[in-house]
Amino acid sequence: MNVDHEITLLVEEIRRLGAPNADGKISVKFGVLFSDDKCANLFEALVGTLKAAKRKKVITFDGELLLQGVHDNVDVILLQD
Q: Is the pLDDT at 81 greater than 70, yes or no?
């Protein structure tokens, strides 16, 4: 799969699983994304797709790398529609 396509799929999944935060932007916890069955089947490397999307300023999250368990409560925030 190409990276742009995976980022598009990621945006769709964040919209499906997330909810508007205080700023009105769609936000979802990393743990919710990581443990979702559909996401697990869609993304071979969810963390890599998240990093690529952050680099392209499509999403943001605190830190450089998200790890299951340790960062389950970190918000992944959609910056673009």
A: no
- Residue tagged 């690529």 (tokens): 52
Q: pLDDT at residue 36 above 90?
A: yes
Rounded to two decimals, the pTM is 0.92
| Domains observed in the chain | 3-78 (1.10.10.1540)
Number of H helices, E strands in the chain: 4, 4
Tell me how far apart the alpha carbons of residues 30 and 61 are, in angstroms, rounded to a whole number. Answer: 9
Q: What is the pLDDT of residue 1?
A: 59
